[in-house]
Structures are given as structure tokens and as C-alpha cells.
Amino acid sequence: MVSAVFHAPPDSAPARNAMPHAADAAGAARAASPAPPTENPPAARQAVRTLSHGFWLCVLPPLCGLGLLVGVWALVSASSGIPGPRETWAQALKVFADPFYRNGPNDQGLGWNLLMSLQRVAIGFGMAALVGIPAGFVIGRFDFLGRMFNPLISLLRPVSPLAWLPLGLLVFKGANPAAIWTIFICSIWPMIINTAVGVQRVPQDYMNVARVLNLSEWKIATRILLPAVLPYMLTGVRLAVGTAWLVIVAAEMLTGGVGIGFWVWDEWNNLNVKNILIAIFVIGAVGMVLEYALIRLASAFTFEEVRA
């Protein structure tokens, strides 16, 4: 009896000792099981939100502006004789299906006319850069020359570019060189003025150091003036190429031949208003591309303190 009361059965102790091992096995199983997926950390969510906000801020406003333009265009075309967006789009598909056809000297595709206009702009603009940028350096560097040429620039710069076209026809005896002359004379002023202003705004400390080091004028121009003046010079180049692209269309309307301006005038004579609208969008798109390319170029060569 005493043995039965105070002594446990022989198999009860192993059962109690097995309980910790079972608990350890359950813990190990829980540790081995994959953890439930956790949510993105706040920093990652904030980065995604910022990227989404930046994307819509870049894309949505231009789309809204384009939609506004198309809507106003559709309303105006409904109450006037101007072709609407749908008719113009259908005509544009036909025009761009074969932009480089040639049926004669005065019947060529839009592509050839656009390339000819760009060629004239490149020649006239290049000549203006070769003359205007060095002239701006000299005018800004020497006070006497600045005082001498400032009245001439102020007198000639406001003259309409088309007023120079008859002189070009008289001197060069041809429509193509006259159009290039017009591009040259209207492009040179922004480059001269902006380059001269950039030279005049170079800190005087730089020039004092150059004087102490007894640098030659060539080293002053290439080592000191050019890096400091480059942002101003590129701004003048950007303004000049925009002006040149504006002027070439009007000049080609008056001179004839091959060019985007002549194409617009010829389509007007044929009463093809759809092609005129297409040319307007093409002219604007090319001007926008040129402007954007020069802005990127200017930003690449502009110092941070100048940008600020």
C-alpha cells in the first residue's frame, strides 16, 4: 500500500520528461516555417509615391495643354472654314506617307522642303556664329570698342529681318543667298550682345590675377574668359537659332524656290489649308527640338552657381 501511494507508475516520468522535447520541436518547426510577408518599409513607399508624383507632374500638364489646343481647334473649326483635327490628321497621314517625292523643281515633298530650310538656317547661323561670337568677345573686352559699336548695334538690331531681304537680293542676285544673308543678319545680334555681356561680367579678380601673371591676350581669352562666358554665349546661340528659324519661313515665302516657307505659300495658292496646318505643326516641332537641344547643351556647360 505504501509503495502504491508514494511511488509513481514507471511510465509516468518519461511522459513528463517528453513534454519539453515536444515544445522544442514545435518551436523549431515555427522557426523553420517561412515568415509571413511584411509590408514595404515607409521609405520604399515614399520613394514609389515620389516617382509616381514626378511622372504625372511631367506627363499630365503637357497632355492637358495638348488636349486644350485640340479642343479649341475643334470648336473654332466648327464655326469657320478651318479644317478640324480629324481632317488634318487624315491629311497628315497622306503627307508623311511619302515626304520625299519629287515631281519637278517646284513640286517636292515636305521632307525635301524641310531639309532645304534647315540647310539655309545652318549656313546663315554658322556664319553668324563665326562673326558674332569673336565680335562679342572683342566688344566686351575693350571698353573703347564697346563704346564705338554699342550705338551701331542699338540702331541696327531693331530692324525687321525682312527689311534686309531686298538688299540681299540686290547684292547677291539670287533668292538662296539672299535668304542666307537674312538669316545671318538676324542671328548675329543675340550672339554679339550676350557674349559681350558675359565678358563684361567676368569678376575683376580674375583679370587682376591674369595681369599679375603677365598672361598674353590669347591665354586670357582661352583660359579665363571662355569658361566664364560660355553660359552667356550659349544663351545667345539659343536665342539666335530661334530667331533664324522664325525668319527663314517668312524669307522663303517671299523668295520662292524649295523650302518650308515656300511650301506653305504654295499650298495657300492651291487653297490647301490642311497642308498649311500640317506645316505649322512641323515648323513648331522643329523649332521646339532645336530649342530643347540647345537648352540641354547650355545646361551641360553651365556652372551650378550660374544656374542658381
3D structure, described in words:
By secondary structure, this protein is mostly helical. It has a domain of 204 residues: MetI-like fold (Orthogonal Bundle). The relative contact order is 0.09.
Descriptive labels:
single chain; MetI-like fold; flat; disordered N terminus; membrane; cell membrane; cell inner membrane; transport; ion transport
Termini separation (Å)? 101 Å
State the CATH architecture of one domain: Orthogonal Bundle
Biggest sheet, open or closed, and with what strands and sense? none
Overall pLDDT confidence: 80
What portion of residues belong to β-strands? Answer: under 5%
The counted number of beta strands is 0
Task: Kindly summarize this structure in a few lines.
It contains 13 helices and no strands.
Write the layout of secondary structure elements.
Elements (H helix, E strand, L loop, with lengths): L1 H5 L5 H21 L9 H37 L6 H13 L12 H32 L1 H14 L8 H8 L2 H26 L3 H9 L4 H39 L4 H10 L3 H28 L3 H4 L1
Helix pairs in contact: 4-12, 5-6, 5-8, 5-10, 5-11, 7-8, 8-10, 10-11, 10-12, 11-12
